[in-house]
Design goal:
By secondary structure, this protein is an alpha+beta fold. The protein is built from 19 helices and 28 strands. Among the domains are: about 200-320, no CATH class; about 495-625, no CATH class. Strands 17, 18, 19, 24, 25, 26, 27 and 28 form an 8-stranded antiparallel sheet that branches. The chain has a 7-stranded antiparallel sheet with strand order 2-9-10-11-16-13-14. Strands 1-7-8-12-15 form a 5-stranded mixed sheet, with helices on one face. α1 crosses α4 (about 60-75).
Length: about 625
């Protein structure tokens, strides 16, 4: 079964974060992700480490981001925590060779009935987390542990069937199966691929017989096949499956189905960030409907794999769009609290009055857009931490002929190419600035290709003064010797992107811009069901303290770089801002949500004020914002 990846992802042993994204990792480590083992019972007292709290997806979700974060930072205290959790998990793997139904099982179960009905999603997820741990730590026990987990899974699927979440996330299991096959090339792993595909949900059937284009017209109808996180993961399903399908003579286009699936979702449920709504299931294109944070980080992970497998630059554009917009929008500046559902037009984040069914969301409750420890549901609390670390790990990838610069975040890679030590240092403030400087160093002369993905969100670009094609990869083929500097300059495209209902969203390059609304944060400190919320990880109501009922007056926009910025996505002082001509209009709010949820479209677009010069911020910076707005000529 030949590896079909055009690019290979790097590990924390080969790449390090720098600059602004290193600051993001430090914030994450000082915030919720780096402290869940201290403050949240579902991690602190999980059944995974012998406690009595949740023993399914939350600890594996958390480890999947916590481990690479800890190792990228080289933080010995956090690394020790990761090792503590992994050691306990490994110690509980069952060793019963005479009972194959149990031998190799690793997930916590208290009764035989619980074991028999266990949703295998957690099995697939813990394998992913353990592979990340192996890549970071080099722990040589991990391959045998995963070998035995997969053997047990195969036996289990031969006698039962995938259940619930596992059925709709079956392709996630291929990550571990391929990883194992590359080490042992045993035929039973091919059969496990077949079992996963056979028992898993058929997304071809779902999408080529699509009946959910108006899923938002049926509120509070919860479906696994319209669940936003399942769909975010499934974007990579056929690309992942293509390797074993090709082995069986079933050739598929690695890119075609992902593109069809995403274009369908964008058509009916698209957002200005380039993602799609889901609160919790698909929610249409209304800018006041929500997008779940879990789905954002899982879509990013799908795009990383899609580029690695297909080599098509559009997946990098889509990755950067989410990473630079929707990901930072989902957490507070200090990353001590997170949001379940974010909205493009979000004028308040509060605990809505009334019952669960009276929320503005589809199947999420009245806490759906609050910032806090775990409003609405705890999966995002555990899962959001994978976003930034895995983006760093996708900054560079190995190509078949050398090295590729993929996601343009400040970073440094040191690796072996043809037996020669090669380092590449990327110094940049992109997307807040327009220049990238690469410094390539080699111990001795070595020939390889160095690729630079040039985003499609540009008017033009130059490499060492030479104009290059946007939306493509630029390849430098040469013998590298000593130290070489490569200077790249982007001219980022400024555009008002058309949105439904004659509305517009402002973009510059990969960054989306919003009208910031002054935020008043009100703490909610309490204990419920044994879970304490106290500062800095309490829940918050965010209420507007400035006007938000604006429209663009014209197409004129100016951008200003801020040198004394505080943190990259500061809601008060980010590294770049915009100024636009705007005027107030009679916008109005949805019935029953006065002052908290704006109308989908303004009640009246007639100006009710003089034009004024208004400051806009990158979408991921303000936590209250208006993003889709009308525009004059």
């Amino acid at each position: 079964m030949k590896n079909n990846h055009r690019y290979s992802m790097l590990t924390t042993k080969e790449i390090e974060a720098k600059g602004w994204i290193l600051e993001q990792l430090k914030l994450q480590a000082k915030g919720l992700c780096g402290n869940l083992h201290k403050v949240w019972p579902d991690v602190r007292n999980s059944q995974w480490i012998g406690g009595d709290k949740e023993g399914w997806e939350r600890v594996p979700y958390w480890l999947d981001g916590f481990i690479p974060m800890a190792y990228l930072l080289g933080d010995e205290e956090l690394i020790a925590v990761a090792k503590k959790y992994v050691e306990f998990i490994l110690s509980k793997q069952e060793n019963t060779p005479d009972i194959p139904y149990h031998d190799g099982w690793i997930c916590p179960c208290n009764t035989q009935e619980e074991f028999d009905n266990f949703d295998e999603w957690a099995v697939l997820l813990i394998c992913k987390a353990l592979i990340v741990y192996y890549d970071c730590s080099g722990d040589e026990r991990i391959p045998n542990v995963i070998y035995r987990i997969l053997k047990n899974l195969k036996f289990r699927l031969e006698h039962t069937a995938l259940k619930s979440w596992g059925q709709f996330r079956w392709y996630e299991g291929l990550i571990a199966v391929y990883w194992m096959y590359d080490r042992c090339e045993e035929e039973w792993l091919i059969e496990l691929c077949r079992l996963l595909e056979f028992e898993g949900a058929d997304f071809h059937k779902i999408f080529y017989r699509w009946r959910d284009e108006k899923a938002h017209d049926r509120p509070n109808v919860w479906r696994l096949h319209t669940h936003v996180v399942n769909l975010a993961m499934a974007l990579k399903s056929e690309a992942m499956a293509s390797r074993f399908l090709a082995y069986e003579g079933r050739e598929v286009d690695e890119d075609e189905f992902a593109e069809y699936m995403l274009s369908t979702l964008h058509k009916y449920h698209g957002t200005p960030t380039g993602y799609f709504t889901g609160d919790e299931c698909l929610a249409g294109d209304d800018p006041t409907r929500g997008t779940e944070l879990c789905g954002v980080v899982e879509a990013m992970y799908s795009y990383e794999w899609l580029y690695a497998i297909t080599g098509k630059e559009k997946w990098v554009d889509r990755l950067e769009a989410l990473a630079f917009n929707a990901l930072p929008a989902g957490t507070s500046d200090d990353m001590w609290v997170r949001q379940y559902d974010q909205q493009a037009n979000q004028i308040a984040c509060i605990r809505f009055p009334g019952t669960h069914e009276e929320s503005p969301f589809g199947s999420n409750g009245y806490e759906g857009n609050m910032f806090g420890l775990e409003p609405n549901y705890g999966c995002c609390t555990a899962n959001f931490g994978q976003g930034w670390p895995k983006l760093v790990l996708s900054a560079f990838m190995r190509s078949e002929t050398g090295l590729a610069s993929v996601a343009h975040v400040p970073s440094k890679v040191i690796l072996d190419i043809k037996g020669v030590k090669v380092s590449v240092d990327l110094d940049t403030m992109y997307p807040f600035r327009d220049t990238l400087t690469y410094t390539v160093k080699t111990d001795k002369p070595v020939e390889f290709d160095f690729e630079i993905v040039i985003p499609s969100t540009l008017n033009s670009a130059t490499v060492d003064g030479e104009a290059v094609e946007v939306g493509k990869k630029y390849i430098i083929s040469r013998t590298w010797e000593g130290e070489t500097a490569i200077n790249v300059v982007f001219d980022q495209k400024v555009e008002f992107v058309e949105r439904p209902r004659d509305m517009y969203a402002l973009k510059r390059g990969a960054l989306l811009y919003s009208l910031p609304i002054k935020e008043e944060w009100y703490r909610r400190e309490f204990t419920e069901e044994g879970i304490e919320r106290k500062f800095p990880y309490c829940d918050y109501d965010l209420k507007p303290a400035s006007d938000w009922n604006y429209a663009y007056s014209d197409n004129k926009v100016e951008f200003e770089e801020v040198d004394d910025y505080t943190i990259p996505f500061s809601s008060k002082n980010p590294p770049i801002v915009a100024y636009a001509n705007m005027h107030k209009i009679n916008w109005g709010c949805k019935e029953g949500f006065e002052g908290t949820v704006p109308n989908t479209v303004p009640a009246d677009r007639t100006p009710i004020s003089e034009t004024e010069r208004v400051k806009l911020l990158p979408y991921g910076a303000p936590k209250l914002r208006m993003t889709e707005m009308p525009k004059g000529k």
